[in-house]
Amino acid sequence: MTGRSEDLFDFIASSLYQFVEKNDSVQSPITKLLGFTFSFPVKQTSVSSGVLIKWTKGFAIRDMVEKEVAGALQQALTRKGLNMRVSVLVNDTVGTLALGHYHDADTVAAVIIGTGTNACYWERTDAIIKCQGLLTTSGGMVVNMEWGNFWSSHLPRTSYDIELDAESPNPNDQGFEKMISGMYLGDIVRRVILRMSEESDVFGPVSSRLYLPFTLRTPLMAAMHEDDSPELTQVARILKDVLDIPDIPLKARKLVVKICDVVTRRAARLAAAGIVGILKKIGRDGSGGITGGRSRSDIKMRRTAVAVEGSLYTQYTMFREYLHEALNEILGEDIARHVVVIVTEDGSGTGAALLAASHSSENVNNIQLI
């Protein structure tokens, strides 16, 4: 994650070699088409090439920034002796959209809500200002939003958000992501508990572990939030084992659950607002293009599907419920019933394979897909 680009892509090629060795002949004369999912901001130059703009999610390989991504993998595949061609380069959101649309033709957008968060959607080419005259045969294009980096003065931050951002490896970047995704929610809760410990004795003496960033991981936060035992035994156990806060009364444990609830609800509602923003942009929010968010009763709503992937949505029940609650609230129940959120599995992998197949110009009988 922090070494040389050659080491990274050699590692990917070696892992791929081992996979092929187990499942097929490495020496096969048939060229295998590879769909390459690369979940980082890229300037896409063609369906099979793109330049890395910057790293996210803890990666920091400096010699790769502003370099062509698919070519680097292709060179590593060649060095490893693999007869493969990188057929498509996609972001994980685009792969998820491809898989979602493969199963449901009404899918117009895809959202990743896991360790990080991002979204993409299908847009008319003539509605994309940045296209600058570029045309597609379909008249449309998939826009990878990189919405994790969204920022606006209308998006109020708390002191906890500001401190987390300032102390992160990428300050002033990925502001929306730091309020929503699984990498950060647990740490926001830790920071709130720390502030309460410093300003009151509700949790007893201040634990030194509260000063360690990312000590409280989001899965543990979710476990505390969803603890339904009468004495909140899960909350007590996690506070003791992870944060070294033992023997706190039930009233204080209930306070921790409330903190988890507030942080999770805000994250889910922000994610829902982002989804509605996409639907509004493409006229699927019931407004019929009317500004101000007013709905029109004379517009026949089309069924609209949004593909979602990521552990925060799929494994965190309260997050998922709050997101759906917010969609209903923002859109109104009459409109929201036409919007279907569909969970996909391995959209980033399977979707990339589907795209590799669909972009093949060779005879399908001479192609093997991984």
From TrEMBL:
GO MF annotation, one: D-glucose binding
Enzyme class: transferase
Annotated keywords: ATP-binding, Glycolysis, Kinase, Nucleotide-binding, Transferase
Organism: Gossypium barbadense
Keyword Transferase among UniProt keywords: yes
Gene3D superfamilies on file: 3.30.420.40, 3.40.367.20
Enzyme Commission number, as recorded: 2.7.1.-
GO biological process, one term: glycolytic process
Family: Belongs to the hexokinase family.
Protein's name in the database: Phosphotransferase
Cited Pfam families: Hexokinase_1 (PF00349), Hexokinase_2 (PF03727)
Domain Hexokinase N-terminal: 1-102
GO cellular component: cytosol; mitochondrion
InterPro entries, A to Z: ATPase_NBD, Hexokinase, Hexokinase_BS, Hexokinase_C, Hexokinase_N
Domain Hexokinase C-terminal as annotated: residue spans: 109-357
Pathway annotation from the record: Carbohydrate degradation; glycolysis; D-glyceraldehyde 3-phosphate and glycerone phosphate from D-glucose: step 1/4; Carbohydrate metabolism; hexose metabolism
